[in-house]
Every structure is written in structure tokens, then in C-alpha cells.
């Protein structure tokens, strides 16, 4: 929730981490009113969705009844991390089947008035260059505390050595670096833990 489609580089001296990025919705973009680079991303996402929506089970019905709004409007697109290299690395982990989860501070959603992810929600993942590369579907969403995240979820995030110890170290550093003013890291801070499945490309 802390990063947009043009992620800023993180402090090179700080460990990097990932959380769900600020969503990018190409359906709301008017090409004449946005920077060229955003219009290009929107066009790529629309093309990607047209080519991959069948993997979300939306192709056969549209042949019979025509495309619905839900089929033509693409899901929100976002990238992992707070800099392009991290976005690439974590996307590679998703494509390899190693990363099937992500987490973020509940406060990010609260402060921005954004809805939490929901089971069944589709997302398009962007790479470090803001190009669409993968289609995923959320399979579970749980809000817990930082200190209650378990070893299984830490391993599902697919980062570093996939241990709970490294998850805690990396995420604490990330939260301390990125929490908005007025928010401070604490072991009992609320964390949104999201699991997902890779729909495209298939493993």
C-alpha cells in the first residue's frame, strides 16, 4: 500500500522488504489527461487483461453472451516493493512459485481509506519497469498482529531464507522506514496477511 507505479528507490543502507503496492487502475485513466508513461502503462495493462482474462474463467461466457463490464475492465495493477530491482526480484519469486503471500500494515489501508483485499479479487502484477507480467487471485486475507505472524506465512512470502526470524527483521525495518507520521512500529501493530494463487503464467 505504500508504493505507486513509479516506486521510489529505498535507502541503500536499509534492508528492503515488500508489501502490496498502491493499486493502479487503468480504467480510470484518460490518456489525454495523464503523463505519457502512465497512458502507456494503462494501454499495456488493458492488452494484458484482454490476453489473460481467460485464466480467470472469463472467456467462455463472453463468447455466448458478450463481454460484461467486469470482463473488459482490468483488475488493479501494482508492483511489489519500494524500488524497481526489488519489484523484479519478488515478481521472479512469484513466477517461480516461491512467493504466494504478501503483507502490509493495516494502518496503510486505514489512513488512505482504501478497502482491504478480498478473497477472489484479481490483480495484475507489474515488473520493475511497470510492465504487466502476471495475473493472481487472492485466496485468503487475515488481519493479525506483527508478533503473531507464524513460520508458515513467513515461508509463503518467499523472501530471504524464508524463516520467521528473517521475516521479522526485514518487515520491522520496512515498517519503521515507511509508516506514515503519527504511526510507530510495535510488535502488536496490525498486519494484513494476504495469500494468492498465480493464474498466469501457469507454472
UniProtKB/TrEMBL annotation:
ASCH domain location: 78-200
Residue ranges, annotated region (Disordered): 1-31
Domain of life: Bacteria
Annotated SUPFAM superfamilies: PUA domain-like
Pfam family, one: ASCH
InterPro entries linked to this entry: ASCH_domain, DUF984, PUA-like_sf
PANTHER family per UniProt: CYTOPLASMIC PROTEIN (PTHR39203:SF1), CYTOPLASMIC PROTEIN-RELATED (PTHR39203)
Protein name in the entry: ASCH domain-containing protein
UniProt organism field: Promicromonospora aerolata
Amino acid at each position: 500500500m505504500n508504493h505507486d507505479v513509479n516506486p521510489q528507490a529505498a535507502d541503500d543502507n536499509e534492508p528492503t522488504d515488500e508489501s502490496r503496492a498502491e493499486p493502479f487502475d487503468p480504467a480510470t485513466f484518460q490518456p489525454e489527461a495523464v503523463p505519457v508513461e502512465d497512458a502507456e502503462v494503462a494501454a499495456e495493462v488493458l492488452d494484458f487483461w484482454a490476453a489473460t482474462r481467460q485464466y480467470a474463467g472469463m472467456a467462455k461466457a463472453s463468447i455466448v453472451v458478450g463481454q460484461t463490464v467486469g470482463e473488459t475492465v482490468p483488475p488493479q495493477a501494482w508492483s511489489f516493493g519500494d524500488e524497481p530491482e526489488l519489484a523484479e526480484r519478488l515478481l521472479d519469486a512469484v513466477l517461480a512459485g516461491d512467493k504466494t503471500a504478501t503483507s502490509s500494515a493495516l494502518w496503510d489501508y486505514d489512513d488512505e481509506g482504501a478497502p482491504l483485499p478480498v478473497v477472489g479479487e484479481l490483480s495484475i502484477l507489474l515488473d520493475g519497469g511497470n510492465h504487466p507480467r502476471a495475473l493472481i487471485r487472492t485466496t485468503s486475507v487475515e488481519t493479525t498482529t506483527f508478533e503473531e505472524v507464524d513460520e508458515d506465512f513467513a515461508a509463503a512470502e518467499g523472501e530471504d531464507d524464508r524463516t520467521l526470524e528473517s521475516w521479522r527483521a526485514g518487515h520491522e525495518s520496512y515498517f519503521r522506514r515507511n509508516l506514515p507520521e503519527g504511526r510507530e512500529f510495535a510488535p502488536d501493530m496490525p498486519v494484513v496477511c494476504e495469500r494468492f494463487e498465480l493464474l498466469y503464467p501457469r507454472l
